[in-house]
Predict the structure.
Amino acid sequence: MNDQHLQRLLPQIIDDLASQGWSRQAHALPQSLTRELAAECHSRAQNGALSPAGVGRGQGLAVREGIRGDSIQWLEPGQSAACDQYLQAMDELRQALNQAFYLGLEDYESHFALYPPGAFYQKHLDRFRDDDRRTVSAVYYLNDDWQDDQGGALRLYPQDGAELDVLPTAGTLVLFISAELPHEVLPATRERLSLTGWFRRRA
Ligand code: OGA
Ligand code: MN
């Protein structure tokens, strides 16, 4: 693995996922890369490249503001050096997860997401009814100087009934088991940027 930041976090990530089904890591990738990714998300938004996100997949896909208010654009390899570095880091993480858990994760799909002020995503699981490939969810946040009173937390509902809020601070990476951990995005008073993605196994 060539990414020192993420490499040093791997043992903790693997321990956390094994013991509690989720992991939160601050400063997961170099700050310079995080800034480039934030700038790219902003310029994609300014160029009109982001589209309102749908809920569900295939024929059931529908844009429903009440459930989810973000706009997204999928990452493809070769779009920018920053995106390629991010995809490379996630691929190394994918391989480490496979070695630790024998999950047979085949690929990683990811999109930029922009929540305008007031937008939210109601409580849900990251697994489609008709497609069970999404296995581990990964959200990487791109927002400098996020303050407690700005809202916008990712609220996790771990199985023990507890609630846990994660602020979308630049450099924070959250991982969780897609089919098991209900979660929601609370509305914020400022724009909220992230890269959200899923490690997938074979259908
Ligand atoms: C999602 C999601 C969480 C976040 O896109 O499925 O739950 O914090 N995102 O952006
Ligand atoms: Mn989700």
